Amino acid sequence: MSYCKINTKNFSANIDEILKHVSINKIAIVLKNNAYGHGLIEMATLAKKNGIMHAVVINYDEALVIKEYFTTILVLSGIPDSKVPSNIHLSINDLENLRKIPMESKVEIKIDTGMHRNGISTEQIDDAFRIIKSKKLKLVGVFTHFSNAFEDDGSLNVQKNKFDKIKKNISKKYSNIRFHCSSSPSLFRIDNSDYDIVRVGIALYGYVDLPKSIKKPSLKPVLSLWAEKVSSREVLKGESIGYGNTYRTDKDLLVSTYDIGYGNGFFRLPDSKKIKISDGRFILGRISMNNISVEGFDNNICVFNDVSELAKIHNTISYEILCRLSSNIIKRIE
Question: What are 167-182's pLDDT values in tens digits?
Fold first, then answer.
């Protein structure tokens, strides 16, 4: 059965790299979408063992699964039907959200400073505070999200300056509110000493996109994807392998089939492109729903231990390759 190895040493090394920029009590690990394919429970367990106290998830269901692991858990979207546990914070993405949230819940207002995706506008802040007071909600945080921190187009500073003004005004009127604005790219670009947490996702898993002007941190991929042999055979010169007869051998080959495919979240490719596995051998023929073919008779193969090159082949980002991996793939902590 195909499986993922989770490298605990690499995860700890990534934390050490991040600690050069913020203290451990400021790290909020982003565990949304099954921890970017790494396993929600597995990564929550590792985070707790490494002293991380805060987490960020995509919905309330994810928060409930890991509610015993962290001091605070920020839910980015969705509204539960009843009052939530005291360590779970609900994001306010618009005023209508706010009106639906159960009374006495802890909430964090997301402010749209320029991404124009989620969050209330600056003009709605006072209205939000009035609704929070009328519904007896507990405001515990205010945050924003940068639209292009991975490129040097000037937008990061524009959004940061806007958020800092909002932070200053709110701080004059309210206490005990945490403020945060950075995810992985801006962690390495701005001074986060004036903010209370940093939402660190992809960097903890070993990747980050940054402008060329910024020195890239020494991050190590945490997840590697492995597959087990299903069968082996000799394929003679001129014979084809896989659907569509798109690959024909130019010599006699010893070929094995392995139990990974697009049914497990491993992308297909156009016939004109080829995928290398981690040791440099190529996948032969089309990727099917549950199988790939590779030259050799190995019982297990490492399909990838770093998705950077694979993301380039697919013309996408590391996030997408990792997040598409099926949650049913077994995670082995090593």
Answer: 999 999 888 999 999 9
Residue 303, burial from CB neighbour count under 10 angstroms (0-12, 13-18, 19+): buried
Domains of the chain: 8-200 (3.20.20.10), 223-333 (2.40.37.10)
3 labelled catalytic: no
Spatial neighbors of 165 by CB under 8 A, at least 6 apart, are: none
Question: Is residue 173 annotated as a catalytic residue, yes or no?
Answer: no
* Catalytically annotated residue among 49, 165, 243, 274: 243
Terminal-to-terminal C-alpha distance of the chain: 17
Catalytic: which of 32, 110, 167, 331? 32
Cα separation values, 273 from 83, 184, 268, Å: 51, 31, 10
DSSP state of 95: H
**Which pTM was predicted?**
0.95
Confidence band, pLDDT 50/70/90 cuts, at residue 272: low
Amino acid, single-letter form, for residue 62: E
pLDDT score recorded for residue 269: 83
